[in-house]
Amino acid sequence: MTPATRWLLTGGGGQLATAFENLLDGEVLVAREESLDLRDAVAVAAAVRSFRPDIVLHTAAYTDVDGAERDERTAYAVNALGTRHIVAALHGTHAQVVSFSSDYVFDGRKGAPYVEHDEPAPLNAYGRTKLAQERETLAWLHGTVIRTAWLFSATGGNFVKTILAAARERAAARPAQPLRVVDDQVGSPTYAGHLAAAVVEALRDGLGPGIYHMAGGGACSWCELAREVVALAGLRVAVEPLTTEQAGRPAARPAYSALTTERAVPQPPCWQDGVAAVMDELLDRP
User: How far is CA 228 from CA 37, 53, 101, 172, 224, in A?
Assistant: First the structure.
């Protein structure tokens, strides 16, 4: 990695791609979904061979967990086959692919934070397609997988923004209405800006192939995360616990999918710091 590094960034306009755009030196080609369909092998090959990247930051993904349960074929085409097409286009080069995966490759039954050598066992279609994406990435000699979790930022749709909007709506009601949020799923919320900074630092240090976990430090439930958002927003709204069963979502979720690492790589700060950082952005605080 040098100042002249050529970066191909998939998933342009998304949370993580936007965070990377603010950090990268060198020449950057941002590929958006509307300009590059990863399911089109010919188009992917043309884009990759024309630009000749040194590093592909592959952030594009099908991320609708419940949508994947209804349409696994499309999720697989984007997550797994799209990655396969990128790797195929890189044959004959020494380019590195950094592909981003999910805590949902695990079943949540370990009862402790997952490390890189733990065996994946996805509970849902989304997790299966992300595991397939990992395997496509690792088939490349220079393939790197970053597993992360519960990503949020000031860009795009995510849990933190959804909770802030819902809490403002509830606070405006008379009397104020409570929020009910799932409290029996635990994970590692991760601010996209912190993740991107950790990945760039790791690449500068010579991050090699293999699997790495990079997620916000610590762990909490969705309900605890929502309470943190509401408190930082200064809203007088009660956040009440809800069970997964009561939520009745189509796709099963792991009960405990927090991530930690057994590898010497930079890590994002704790999840609370991430929430504070994004709330400052969302509330336009100096």
Answer: 37, 40, 25, 19, 6
Instruction: Tell me which residues are annotated as active site.
Output: 126
Q: What percent of the chain has pLDDT over 90?
A: 93
Which CATH number does the domain housing residue 74 bear?
Answer: 3.40.50.720
Task: Give the H/E segment covering residue 147.
Answer: strand 143-148
Full residue range of the structural domain in which residue 49 is found: 6-153+189-215
User: pTM here?
Assistant: 0.96
What's the DSSP call for residue 181? E
How do residues 194-226 score in pLDDT, each as one tens digit? 999 999 999 999 999 999 999 999 999 999 999
The half-sphere exposure of 252 on its side-chain side, counting CA atoms within 13 A, is: 15
How far apart, in Å, are the Cα atoms of 199 and each of 49, 59, 149, 207?
A: 24, 12, 14, 9
264, part of any domain = no
